[in-house]
Write a structure and sequence with these properties.
The chain is of the alpha/beta class and 375 residues long. The chain is built from 14 helices and 13 strands. The protein has 2 domains: 180 residues, Rossmann fold; 174 residues, 3-Layer(aba) Sandwich (Rossmann fold), CATH 3.40.50.2000. Helix 8 packs across helix 12. The protein is elongated and about 65 Å long.
C-alpha cells in the first residue's frame, strides 16, 4: 500500500494546501495511506481529523527569530522531534514525505533524510520560511505557490486549494449563493474577510463607511471573525448587510460576491484568483512583508488593488472603493485579470509528482484511476 506522510501543521496557510494535496492523492488512488504530522499547538488537532486523515503528533520546536538564551535548548528539543518523526516514518513505511513549512516540517525533513525517504517541498509564500529553505536543500522536488520564489530547484505550480473552490463556477452559482445568505440578486456584493480570526482594521473601516455603502446600493457580506466582534450597526433590510463570525463554506461566499476586501495571505490570494474574484488586498502591517509580495503579482496583472493597512479608512472606502464597485465594466475586467493569474489545478499537479515518486521508489507503473487533472 502506498504511504505518504504530510508535514503541514501550525496555521491554516500550511494546513489547507496540505489537505488539498491529501484529497487529490486520495482521489487518484483510494488505497493510499496518508499520515499527517502535527503538534499539539496547531490548528491541525481540530482540522485534520475532521477532514478524515490520520494525525500523528510530534513535539513543537519553534526556532527563535533572534539570538537569545532560548537557542541553547533548540538542539536537544529538535533531536527529540526528529526522533519522533523518524519513528512515525518507520511505522507507516513512508514512501514520500511532503512538507509545507511550519514547525513540523523541519523535524519531518530531517527525519526523512535520516531514513532515506524522498522529500517533496511546497512553499506557498513569495518569501520562503526557514523550514522550507532547509528542506529545499535536501531534494530537487521543490514547488512554489508564487512565481520567482527564491528556492533551489523551484518550480512554480500555484497553491493546492480544496476542490470545492477550485471547481467553483462563480457566476453560475451566484444567485443560489446570494439566496443562501439572504442577499438580493440585483445589487453588487462586497465580501469582507480578514481570515479565520477576522481583522479589526478592516472591520473598523467598513463600519465607518457602511451607511454610504448601503446608501449607494452595495450589499455587504462581512465575516467579522470570532475575536474581533462586529462593531457594525445592523441597518434596515432594503440593502442587506450580513455579518458572520465565521464562514466554513467560502465557496458560497465567493460565489455571492462581486468584489472582496481582505488580507493577502497566500491561500486567500490563491482562492480568489482561482475563482476570478477581484479584491482590495490589505497585507498584515507586521511580519516579514510576505503578504504584500503574495498580492503584488495580482495587482500587476490588473486583478486587484494592494493597499497599506494604515491607508484603509472609511474615507478611502467612500472616496475610492465605492467608485470601483459601481464601475461594472472595470469589475468585470478585474475579474478576468484575476482569473488569468489563478491556478485551479495545483493540487492535481502536486499529487501527480508525489505519485510518480512513489512509482519510481516502489516499481509500480500502473496509471491510477481518477488521477487525471481536475478529477
Amino acid at each position: 500500500m502506498p504511504s505518504v506522510v504530510i508535514a503541514g501543521g501550525g496555521t491554516g496557510g500550511h494546513i489547507e494546501p496540505a489537505m488539498a494535496l491529501a484529497d487529490a492523492l486520495r482521489r487518484a488512488d483510494p488505497r493510499i495511506a496518508i499520515t499527517c504530522l502535527g503538534t499539539e499547538r496547531g490548528l491541525e488537532t481540530r482540522v485534520i481529523p475532521a477532514r478524515g486523515y490520520a494525525l500523528e503528533l510530534i513535539p513543537a520546536v519553534p526556532l527563535p527569530r533572534s539570538l537569545s538564551t532560548s537557542m541553547l535548548s533548540v538542539p536537544g528539543r529538535m533531536a527529540g522531534a526528529v526522533g519522533a518523526a523518524a519513528e512515525i516514518l518507520d511505522r507507516v513505511r513512508a514512501d514520500v514525505l511532503v512538507g509545507f513549512g511550519g514547525y513540523v516540517a523541519t523535524p519531518g525533513y530531517l527525519a526523512a533524510r535520516r531514513r532515506g525517504v524522498p522529500i517533496v517541498v511546497h512553499e506557498a509564500n513569495a518569501r520562503p520560511g526557514l523550514a522550507n529553505r532547509l528542506g529545499a536543500r535536501m531534494t530537487r522536488q521543490v514547488f512554489t505557490g508564487q512565481p520567482g520564489t527564491a528556492l533551489p530547484h523551484a518550480r512554480h505550480i500555484g497553491i493546492p486549494i480544496r476542490r470545492q473552490i477550485a471547481s467553483l463556477d462563480r457566476l453560475a452559482q451566484s444567485e443560489k449563493a446570494r439566496a443562501h445568505f439572504g442577499l438580493r440578486p440585483d445589487l453588487p456584493v462586497l465580501l469582507v474577510t480578514g481570515g479565520s480570526q477576522g481583522a479589526a482594521s478592516l472591520n473598523r473601516a467598513v463600519a465607518g463607511a457602511l451607511d454610504t455603502l448601503l446608501g449607494v446600493g452595495i450589499q455587504v457580506l462581512h465575516i467579522v471573525g470570532p475575536r474581533t466582534g462586529s462593531a457594525v450597526p445592523t441597518p434596515g433590510a432594503d440593502v442587506p448587510y450580513v455579518a458572520l463570525e465565521y464562514l466554513d463554506r467560502m465557496d458560497l461566499g465567493y460565489a455571492a460576491a462581486d468584489f472582496a476586501l481582505c488580507r493577502a495571505g497566500a491561500m486567500t490570494c490563491a482562492e480568489l484568483t482561482a475563482v476570478g474574484l477581484p479584491a482590495v488586498y490589505v497585507p498584515l502591517p507586521h511580519g516579514n512583508g510576505e503578504q504584500r509580495l503574495n498580492a503584488l503579482p495580482i495587482e500587476r496583472a490588473g486583478g486587484g488593488i494592494v493597499l497599506d493597512d494604515a491607508s484603509l479608512t472609511a474615507d478611502w472606502i467612500r472616496e475610492v472603493l465605492i467608485g470601483v464597485l459601481l464601475d461594472h465594466e472595470r469589475v468585470a475586467a478585474m475579474s478576468r485579470a484575476a482569473a488569468g493569474v489563478g491556478n485551479r489545478d495545483a493540487d492535481v499537479v502536486l499529487a501527480e509528482q508525489v505519485l510518480s515518486m512513489i512509482d519510481a521508489r516502489t516499481g509500480a507503473g500502473a496509471r491510477r484511476p481518477g488521477s487525471h487533472r481536475g478529477g
